[in-house]
């Protein structure tokens, strides 16, 4: 009896301490968010005002939710008008927006199916459906098809935007430039100005590019979240390519504040961490992509696999690195026809460094340059050729890569190496200096992160 | 009905959220464009149409000209086999389980010029129509058209019923869904299955790395814990975890404009780590002291005015110790050292037993527990158990948070809270079971000769392990927060 009384009292005493503990935990849980808010704002203050996203950021999942609402809206209209083609074209456009927002390739297929149905119902003057097909073709890296489809449509902002992207990819920078200027003249919004900035970057006109980015961000609207995050991501990568890692990081973080799972920003941040030597952090970021891409395959999967392979290799785990490379290779081979990933597969084979892969890498690049001749593609061709000891051809390929004036430390470095091997010491020195001038921090560690990012130098 | 649908949606979303967030290191999917299929379902009263675009390789025998796309002529020529093949793999049943009659027709899109068929060469599009003689209720769609040997093949499907549009992804693991008017999707079994699933998920989730299992294990083995302690620890973890998810979920909603929930996790980990370090250090200090005392006592020493018998073999729950005199002496109880200078044992010899758990009052309001004084004299204290349980449950599982937020997003807050609770119970079930196993296993160690020096060191080593784990958790959290960056970085 006495014993049970003692137990009761003891329990009461212990319970008296519980509220204090609960209150402390509750206090912490409330204090931390407030502290983090202050911290975040303090952190954001380091980002130049024009680059900050000043609108209310969308609540989690609201971007795709909004697209789902749009899908429901057009589906409902199609039910009311089953023989109409216009609503199907608009629906196809929303599907493609969904594909771009999530990176999930299935939405492209659905967009294509719907656009084709639309064209059956409305075979003429159906620009919306044609442009939806052109977008699918662009996503699949079928640039000639995309240009052809866009030329069949009445010229408008959509056709011009596709023309900028595709002309950049096939190396017709002047055509891309003209299309971008016309696009900006028609509608100087963030998306148009970002495209103009990309064209300027590909010509080495950095001031013009920065001006276009800033002008675009100044004209930013709250309803164009996709453009807002894309513009900051490529701007971040531009700073990254100039060795301004802090600025790049801030921009990526700003993007992730707006859209926490945005794959290009996560991938670019991982690239940045690899460059800094923070391999664990990079691995965490790649895992973050896996978390969001388990539902369905995405266009970013092969980049993640390659990134993981690189990280594992740098961490001194060649076995895991090989396993990840095998996955990347399997994925790239399967998508070789559908998504035109020849260049990425060639780069992977080169990264593996096996002599027996060189012939295939060259064959892939010879196929690729028939449809795509942007700076990164020509650089990859030069890489293969130089690995095979065909230095003269490699130099020709590098010259084409650099012909529009693009400034990229990695490209300059390769051009310098090729020139040096060919005995053009003075020219090599010029290239090496150009590499340092472009990115003063471009060193051995920086080279370990090459080719892991998304955007800026053409489509991935 | 709507409510049921809402609940089921939460279940589906939670399932996906769980899948996404609980298998961080799982192998990513290997599906690719050529494995993908898409479908658009138009639900009608007596007829439901499906426009299906799928890899032509699935019906390669019907692709006579081997161009990778079924032409209208090829569809007509292989009408019967296509209908049988597709009817076996994609079918709709009504509420009575009756299948609709399937007819297969080429898609209208085949009339398009080839230059407007971007996927020509890999995919074909067909129109599937399922017909019933009378209006149907409660349709179920069964989809099993996947390339063999490709476990991650998918079919993205949009479903259009009057006033309702949904999209769903079929996979080899998820081939079936019920499609009903005004209540499109829910898995068979409904709410009870969702709750049971949550429990199992929580239980399985506890087996994944984390949740303080190592720390709890080290504590329970090192200290002289009982099954009750293990249960208490499990319950504390559950309650803290549930409360943590609720608080974080609500905090996330409240502060969603300002703070990303993922930025909170490192801070919570940091606090959790500090608590663990605190527990570990206290135990370590206490046990080192007791080891010292025990070593001296083992020599059966005699003080001036009182003697203690501290034969190591008596350091069991049945130990009897003698306070020959009322001299001030020290008891050390793992978490706190208290002096008995404020109460006396007046010149009496008392021999008391220590059953599994009891407390006693010395009449001065100072209640202390002699819960299982161990051979090292370091009993498990409820306070340390509480702190340990809190530290284990303090950092809520992201999966549980996603579940709650999904529920809130769908307006089903109550069901979300219930699911989080069930999830936490599953989590606690596993943790408690593990704890009980460890406690049982510990008795095996007790049967070993206790005068072995190594055996005396076990509690101290376990305390050291706890401390190091706490330091590890805190350091990792600090690095995640970004307060500290490893050497060798630049930029």
Task: Explain what you see.
The complex is a heterodimer of chains A (460) and B (491). With 460 residues, chain A is mainly alpha-helical. Chain A has a domain at 268-460: Alpha Horseshoe (Serine Threonine Protein Phosphatase 5, Tetratricopeptide repeat), CATH 1.25.40.10. In chain A, 76% of the residues lie in helices and 0% in strands. In chain A, α15 packs antiparallel against α16 (318-334) and α21 packs antiparallel against α22 (409-421). Chain A starts with a helix and ends in a 13-residue tail after the last helix. Chain B is built from 11 helices and 13 strands. Chain B is α+β, with helices and mostly antiparallel strands. Chain B folds into 2 domains: 31-188, no CATH class; 195-288 and 380-481. The model of chain B is unreliable at 1-5, 10-31, 181-189, 300-378 and 484-491 (pLDDT under 50). Chains A and B meet through α1, α2, α4, α5 and α6 of A and α1, β1, β7, β8 and α6 of B.
């Amino acid at each position: 009896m006495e014993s049970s009384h003692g137990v009761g009292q003891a329990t009461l005493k212990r319970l008296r301490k519980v509220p204090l503990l609960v209150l402390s935990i509750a206090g912490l849980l409330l204090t931390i968010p407030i502290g983090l808010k202050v911290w975040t704002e303090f952190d954001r203050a380091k980002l130049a005002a024009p680059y900050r996203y000043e609108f209310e950021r969308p609540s989690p999942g609201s971007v795709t939710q909004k697209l789902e609402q749009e899908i429901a809206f057009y589906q409902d209209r199609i039910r009311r008008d089953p023989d109409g083609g216009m609503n199907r074209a608009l629906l196809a456009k929303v599907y493609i927006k969904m594909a771009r927002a999530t990176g999930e390739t299935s939405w492209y297929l659905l967009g294509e199916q719907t656009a084709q149905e639309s064209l059956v119902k409305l075979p003429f003057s159906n620009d919306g459906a044609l442009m939806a097909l052109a977008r699918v073709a662009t996503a699949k890296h079928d640039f000639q098809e995309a240009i052809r489809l866009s030329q069949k449509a009445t010229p408008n902002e959509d056709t011009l935007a596709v023309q900028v992207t595709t002309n950049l990819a096939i190396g017709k920078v002047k055509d891309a430039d003209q299309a971008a200027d016309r696009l900006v003249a028609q509608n100087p919004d963030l998306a148009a100005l970002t495209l103009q900035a990309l064209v300027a970057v590909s010509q080495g006109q950095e001031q013009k590019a920065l001006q276009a980015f800033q002008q675009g961000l100044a004209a930013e609207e709250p309803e164009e979240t996709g453009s807002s995050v894309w513009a900051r991501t490529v701007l971040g990568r531009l700073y990254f390519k100039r060795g301004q890692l802090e600025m790049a990081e801030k921009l990526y973080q700003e993007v992730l504040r707006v859209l926490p799972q945005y794959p290009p920003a996560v991938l670019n941040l991982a690239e940045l961490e690899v460059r800094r030597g923070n391999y664990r952090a990079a691995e965490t970021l790649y895992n973050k992509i896996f978390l969001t891409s388990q539902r369905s395959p995405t266009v970013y999967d092969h980049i993640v696999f390659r990134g993981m392979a690189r990280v594992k290799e740098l961490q001194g785990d060649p076995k895991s690195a090989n396993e990840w490379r095998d996955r990347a290779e399997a994925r790239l081979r399967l998508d070789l026809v559908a998504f035109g990933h020849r260049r990425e597969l060639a780069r992977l084979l080169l990264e593996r460094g096996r002599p027996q892969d060189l012939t295939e890498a060259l064959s892939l690049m010879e196929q690729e340059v028939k449809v795509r001749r942007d700076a990164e593609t020509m650089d990859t061709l030069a890489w293969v050729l130089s690995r095979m000891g065909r230095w003269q051809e490699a130099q020709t390929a590098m010259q084409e890569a650099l012909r529009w004036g693009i400034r990229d430390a990695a490209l300059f470095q390769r051009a310098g190496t090729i020139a040096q091997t060919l005995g053009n010491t003075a020219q090599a020195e010029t290239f090496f200096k150009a590499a340092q001038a472009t990115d003063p921090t471009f060193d051995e560690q920086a080279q370990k992160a090459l080719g892991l990012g998304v955007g800026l130098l053409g489509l991935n | 009905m709507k409510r049921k649908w809402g609940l089921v949606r939460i279940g589906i979303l939670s399932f996906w959220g769980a899948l996404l967030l609980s298998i961080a290191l799982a192998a990513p999917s290997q599906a690719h464009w050529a494995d993908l299929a898409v479908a658009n379902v138009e639900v009608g009263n007596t007829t439901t149409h499906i426009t299906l675009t799928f890899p032509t390789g699935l019906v390669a025998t019907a692709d006579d000209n081997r161009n990778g796309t079924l032409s209208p002529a090829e569809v007509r020529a292989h009408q019967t086999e296509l209908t049988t093949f597709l009817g076996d793999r994609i079918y709709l049943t009504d509420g009575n389980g009756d299948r609709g009659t399937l007819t297969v027709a080429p898609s209208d899109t085949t009339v398009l010029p080839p230059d407007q068929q971007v996927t020509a060469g890999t995919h074909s599009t067909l129109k599937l129509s399922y017909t019933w003689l009378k209006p149907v209720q409660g349709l179920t769609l069964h989809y099993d058209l996947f390339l063999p040997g490709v476990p991650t093949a998918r079919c993205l499907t949009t479903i259009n019923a009057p006033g309702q549009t949904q999209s769903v992804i079929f996979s080899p693991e998820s081939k079936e869904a019920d499609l009903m008017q005004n209540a499109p999707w829910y898995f068979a079994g409904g709410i009870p299955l969702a709750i049971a699933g949550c429990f199992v998920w929580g239980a399985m989730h506890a087996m994944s790395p984390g949740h303080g299992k190592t720390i709890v294990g080290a504590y329970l083995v090192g200290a002289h814990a009982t099954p009750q302690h293990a249960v208490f620890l499990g319950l504390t973890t559950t309650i803290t975890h549930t409360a943590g998810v609720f608080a974080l979920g609500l905090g996330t909603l409240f502060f969603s404009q300002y703070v990303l929930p993922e930025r909170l996790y490192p801070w919570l980990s940091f606090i959790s780590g500090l608590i663990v370090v605190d527990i570990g250090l206290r135990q370590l200090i206490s046990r080192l002291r007791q080891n010292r005392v025990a070593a001296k006592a083992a020599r059966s020493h005699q003080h001036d005015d009182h003697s203690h018998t501290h034969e190591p073999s008596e350091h069991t729950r049945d130990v009897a110790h003698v306070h020959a005199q009322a001299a001030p002496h020290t008891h050390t109880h793992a978490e706190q050292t208290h002096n008995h200078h404020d109460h006396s044992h007046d010149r009496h010899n008392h021999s008391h037993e220590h059953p599994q758990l009891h407390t006693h009052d010395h009449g001065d309001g100072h209640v202390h527990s002699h819960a299982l004084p161990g051979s090292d004299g370091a009993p498990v204290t409820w306070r340390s158990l509480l702190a340990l349980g809190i530290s284990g449950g303090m950092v809520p599982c992201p999966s549980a948070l996603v579940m709650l937020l999904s529920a809130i997003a769908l307006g089903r807050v109550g069901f979300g809270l219930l699911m989080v609770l069930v999830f936490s119970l599953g989590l606690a079930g596993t943790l408690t079971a593990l704890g009980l196993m460890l406690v049982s296993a510990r008795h095996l160690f007790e049967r070993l000769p206790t005068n072995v020096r190594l055996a005396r060191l076990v509690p101290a080593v376990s305390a050291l392990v706890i401390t190091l784990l706490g330091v590890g958790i805190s350091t990792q959290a600090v690095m995640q927060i970004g307060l500290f960056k490893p050497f060798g970085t630049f930029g």
